[in-house]
User: Fold this.
Amino acid sequence: MPLLIIARLTLFELVRRRVVGAVAALTAICVGLTGWAFYKLHEFSLAHSSAAAGGGEEAMANAMQVILLAHMFGMVLAVGGAFLAAPSIASDIESGIALAILPRPLRRRDVVLGRFLGLAVAIGAYVFITGALEFSVIHAITGYAPPHPAAALAYISSGAVVLLALGIAGSTRFSPIAVGIVCVALYGVAWIAQVADAVATAYHNGAIRTACTIVSLIVPTGGLWRGAIFSLEPTLMVAASAQLTVNPITVTSPPTHAYLIWTALWVAGMLVAAIASFERRDV
Amino acid sequence: MSVPRGEIFGFLGPNGAGKTTAIKLFLGLAHPTSGQASILGAPPSDLDMRRRVGYLPELFRFQDWLTAREVLELHCTLASVARARRRTAIDDVLELVGLRERGDDRVASYSKGMQQRLGLGVALVAEPEIVFLDEPTSALDPLGRREVRDVLRAVKSRGATVFLNSHLLSEVEQVCDRVAIIDRGRVVGGGDLADLLGRSTRVRIRLAEASPDAAAIAARFGRVEQIGALTLLVDGIADAKTPDLVRALAAAGARILAVAGETPTLEERFLNLLAEPDDAAADNR
Assistant:
């Protein structure tokens, strides 16, 4: 099946171009550093925690550390997804690789969907392997485990997949650098909109909230980010977050089912647009 | 324009004439604004037809992180070559294009000429019924060009059609059965190569003394170039018309010293066709 051939070729390219090796090495360093940080935090907690506070104080500190880590991880993943997707079709057209492949008996949609599938599998695998490793290290050192780690990882990888779809659609028409910049900029706008939404909610500003809702529908990475954070928050933290006037770091509710369905439709729509754009293009 | 099966067909034209665009239209890589094409009896979008087609683009690159064998394996898979036959097909084509010893090397280490050889291998590995070659020898040395000519003849000998897009007219002259010459997107000439060259002879006439009417009479038979007072070069005259020209000159009192027929090269014929005004070119379409 041509789609699977292209997907497999995409994964093979990541291995051959040493993307996998480089990312694995960087991940090992990151997990080592964060493990060390959690160990120091745990050590400090053991030395200074009061009997009255018990382990609750440390659990909250660990939860906040994990959430901050997830912020960093989610951002790196999303930017990585955008930069993997941006050249996926465009560079094949520019270099002439597409000229050799496309006359073969395959549809252009096989190339678009194969590229998407290969990169989505790579990102998903990376998120779950790295996330599982990170959570295991934290649990082994501190005994803390976030409440819904698998759901959090699913939300994080979904955010990257959203940018992946956007990047591939752009890649059928525009240069890799233009697509990469647009994807990262939109991701930043979506993230800021989530923070602005929290502030607008605290100050009951309807106009800003509406604007933020529109942004989260146009670029649905922000809502997925909320889902990831919510999945990592212990019940105590959710309750504490609800008491804060302004709270841009933690969230009090996950995205709705309607929003998740919209996100799935958004990704599907972006892929349909990518296929239509690529099929109409002269190579 | 139609291309008979089992022949080597030369597709010629100046830079920007539309040669590469035409091939892209045939293979569905570009979309026509009007008109239609049929390859092996099927439209360019037909996937089954594309299983039976090979293509070497002019400006291309393969995945440089793959080895030549892996590139060929990829194209065998895409072209649905039976798994049991792939290894033999790849070995054979590597041998054919002279890359047997370098088959396991990454494409990134290949010279431009080697990449062109690999491109030819990719075009041929699935044993296509028709192969489109866009400037297949542009990066090759004379030895490589000769090898490619041999490859093209071998492809023809197994009954396949070769559509050769080239501006190297001497190459075309040596291997092609038929040609089409295009200019600004239109066919301005073509047909059987032997006929094309044979039917457009040139006659050089040397006069014993100057004749004021000779050039005007000769102009009725072809384009005339007067070289000095005593030599006329009549271009584009058919063999059968040469005696009539001589008779007409003699009747007008010209004293003819010598008449010599010359066959123009494909390059000369090519340049003449491109130099013809549009209405004359239209007669050749």
Remarks:
- Chain A has a mean pLDDT of 90.
- Chain A touches chain B at residues 2, 5, 9, 13, 16-17, 95-97, 99-107, 280, 282-283 (CB under 8 Å).
- Chain A has twelve helices and no strands.
- The radius of gyration of chain A is 21 Å.
